[in-house]
Amino acid sequence: MGGSSAVVATTGPRRSPLTTVAWILPGTIWLLLFLIAPLVMIILVSLWERTPVGFAAFSFSLDAYGRIFETSVFLDTLKNTIFRSLLVTALCILIGYPIAFYLARCVKTIKFQIALFIVVLAPFWVAYVVRIIAWLPVLGRQGVINYFLVEVLGVVDEPISALFYSTFAITLALVQLYVLFMVTPIFFQLATLDEAAIEAARDLGATPGKVFREVIFPLSLPGVLIGCIFVFVLVMGEFATVRIIGGGTIQSVGTLVNDYYTIPDLPAAAAAATMLVAVMTVGVAILLRFSKIREVV
Amino acid sequence: MTYIWYLIALVLLVIPFSAMVFLPINKSKPVLLGFFLIFIVFMYGPMMTMGVLSFQGPFGSMTLPAKDLGSLHWFTELRAESSLMVGVRDGITKSLWVSLVVAAITAVLSLSLGMAFRRQFRGGGILFYAILLSLMTPGLLLSLGLSFLLYYIGFNKGEGMLGYVPIIGVQAVWALPFGFLVMMSVFNRYDARAEEAARDLGASSFTTFREVTLPLIWTGVFGAGLFGFTLALNEFERTFLISGAINTLPLKLYIITSSSVLRPYVYSLGVVTIIISFLLIALFLIVSAITGRKKALAIEEDGSGVDDLPSMTAAAASGD
């Protein structure tokens, strides 16, 4: 991944402006229709009046925001969702970095490296709903974890029923679902490190800890940041995991948006979604300020 | 109680991380290998458990212990004539058709955008970030916004063939960045000399594209399409609010898990989708391997092997 200038291959033959337009047009129209227009629509609808079945276009009011902030439910859920996203992001770094490090720097042959990377990445292509459902037999009251705790280890007398339908279960499942978004960018960054810099640091007598802190980690930071942006943003907008594993007792902004949508109170759903976008944008802006990512990437 | 679990998790995670930070590679390697193996169990364990439980007998339950293992009961159950199973099979058919169309569209759009980015053009930066934006837009938001748009223009969701348009639309947008990045990596180590030769010999730009460029990059286009197919097949949140009555397989699965009494057929269905996904990955790898060998052979015959070594290693590193 890289910035536009770095990514443009400039291997192409000279061409007329008309040809360029022809190549750009289909993709641009598609993105405008199915990506940009929906996002603009969310903000617009949040500013429109509610009708019994939907919204009245171009009747501006801030009522929808009034409705979602009427009780403390939305704000509390927003806080919980932000906290959960930060927690999942932190856990993904703690898990994803050593995994990417192992793949990129401890596996010697390229063939073996590719093979292991594919094994790590393969679950990404399994249906997301199926991966959530797969947690049922593990975390359930009679699931694998309880089975081990009670029958094998005997550390608890009776199964812990709070394992499923709990925030811990949701956190665990979210980490498993999104950790690959952290592993992949860090792996690519670590695999293309400048070996000479590391050698030089070592020759100058730096301890392993120092080499990591002052050479490897700073150089891998862009990968970590891209991973953080992915995980934070995607977990903020998460809906299905919370609904299926939380069993309707635990909310996220995503499930609230869905609840407003089914009432139906479309402007309130839009307002909640707009707040979500606002938080995500602020989060990404903070992450970008952390580093000079724009220059590095 | 929950905090104890978080604490245990945190302590366990600090061990490999600090080993990585403070130990030299030859000492941290065994620790990291152990952590890697635990990670693989973490990633595949739930799916494996699901797989085991799907082979239970008729009295099997949703949790351990497994009853009468080694039976295909819940797989044959998928072929039953109950309304539920008819709906499930219908969902599979719809999913496959939608995925096929999304695959074709993703391939075409990725190809044309990949061609566009071979030279710089005004607004290229914005377009590039717009493509990547779709990676970072939560599925539910996309679904919500598009459903507003459909409501605004008075579109009847999920009716007739037209009902498939928004579904295919969002799924292709989701697959586009992946296909686009595949095309970018193809063009990044693409040798434009053949094109120039064709142009010098008087071929029109269309002929050059059809006769020279396309044969050289078709595996990339195929890869982009395959990305589209797999991602569309498994897509759920983006389709959630715009599908109307068109229930693709993931939507059907979500409806089942959130409304009816769960039986192990949910697991056997999960196993079937996992097998399909892994077969598609295998197909992708086989095609990549074949073109990789072809490319290596071509370079050998060319006699310019030394010259092209960096591009070969780059090709090997990206598995193409």
Report on this model:
- The complex is a heterodimer of chains A (297) and B (320).
- Helices cover 72% and strands 3% of the residues of chain A.
- Chain A is mainly alpha-helical and 297 residues long.
- Chain A has a single domain (70-296), classed as MetI-like fold.
- In chain A, a hairpin with a 4-residue loop joins β1 (48-50) and β2 (55-60).
- The longest helix of chain A has 34 residues, at 73-106.
- Chain A is globular, with a radius of gyration of 23 Å.
- Chain A starts with a helix and ends with a helix.
- In chain B, 74% of the residues lie in helices and 0% in strands.
- Chain B is built from twelve helices and no strands.
- The model of chain B is unreliable at 303-320 (pLDDT under 50).
- The interface between A and B is large, with 110 and 126 residues.
Describe the structure concisely for a colleague.
Chain A has 297 residues and is mainly α. Chain A has one domain (70-296): MetI-like fold (Orthogonal Bundle). Chain A has 16 helices and two strands.
Number of domains of chain B: 2
* Largest contact between chains: A-B, 110 and 126 residues
Note the beta-strand portion of chain A: under 5%
Helix content of chain A: over 70%
Question: Which spans of chain B have pLDDT < 50 for at least 5 consecutive residues?
Answer: 303-320
Name of the CATH architecture of the largest domain in chain B: Orthogonal Bundle
CATH C-level category of chain A: Mainly Alpha
What class would the helix/strand composition of chain B place it in? Answer: mainly alpha
Overall pLDDT level of chain A = 86
